[in-house]
Amino acid sequence: MHRKRFRKRLRETCYKTHSLVIIFLSIKFFDYCKHHSYLNHIIFLSLYYTFVYIIMRSNQVTIKDIARELGVSPSTVSRALKDHPDISPETKREVKDLAEKLNYQPNAIALSLKHSRSFTLGVIIPETVHYFFSSVISGIEDVAYNAGFNMMICQSNELYDREKSNANMLYSNRVDGLLVSISKETIDFNHLLFFQQNNIPVVFFDRTTDDFPCDQVIIDDYTAAFNIVEYMIKRGHKNIIHLAAPQHLQIGFKRRKGYQDALLKHGLPFSEKNIVLADKFDMSTQAVEKIIQQENIPDGIFAVNDLTALGAIKALKRNNIRIPDDVGVAGFGNGQNAILTDPPLTTIDQNGYKMGIKAAELLLKRISSNVTEFAHEKHYIETELIVRESIR
After folding, report:
1. Looking at the 3D structure of the chain, how many domains does it have?
2. Do residues 282 and 310 touch, judged by C-beta distance below 8 A?
3. Same domain, 329 and 281
4. pLDDT tens readout for residues 23-58
5. Do residue 369 and residue 339 come from a single domain?
6. Are strands 347-349 and 384-386 parallel, antiparallel or unpaired?
7. pTM of the complete model
């Protein structure tokens, strides 16, 4: 009993000593920076963080500490923590109780070295503002968590340079696999090819390209767009404009094509003038305001996503145009705002959560297989037309 008390006090004393040493080193470091060159700063900083890491690591509770306290072998502790059947229930209970008391945490670095994996998945999305991407991340996280993996999530903000920087950072952190929805600016994929060249699997979801061969999890954007525009036509909307995404993106091109073919199928004229590049809230508001000022008001608007549709609704209401009596509005995505807007928005449910689940499962399959050459897979997630009051 006395030995346990002594060890506890010794750990507390070491922790306080380590903290004082780190504070002292920090003061010395900043004082050093005032009088030396940039290169010397880098060298000193590297040594500083190395020393801090060693100090902090020495204060962590290990399996050996638990084994020493209980008078058992480290392998017994390890197996008890993993609920191995060869370990008695009493020993498991003692080990887990002490581990919790001492706040024991597995050493992620040691585990990654042992298994040659970081147990981390990298995720790059264009923006977090869209409910769709939040739901995709939720699906990915559920699968990753159940498989014992962590996630590192990055946002490109629709910028190629930011996406490239994100990819480099994730590679430096040795992620085991990468899930990507590309930015609007991305037309070069060397920053992603680097992963494949180093046997790190890549899976595209939602936004994809045929210029980079890899596994894909997507929806049928063409059919979904065709179905919602056809529904608008059957409800009496004949002069429909499309608020579109950039056409080099497959989602932008395919949704535009679905809109166009729905018009032609029902004998309605198609005009390039009715294709307006506007895939954000503010862009949509400004575009619809301009259309209204030109007194060329359509009786229907099909927007490439829900936020764009909401921007159109804002402009229409500002000009006292009734929805859906005067102009019907349809979106794409079925985010939470689609229900909250007045009137509630007719839209396409992309099932982002299911997409996230499938993308993560596919990536984990590639990671566990350790096969470097395989036929790439393309999976389609089913969509659903959600009918609400924004269409007649």
Report:
1. 3
2. no
3. yes
4. 555 555 556 555 555 455 555 555 555 554 554 455
5. no
6. antiparallel
7. 0.74
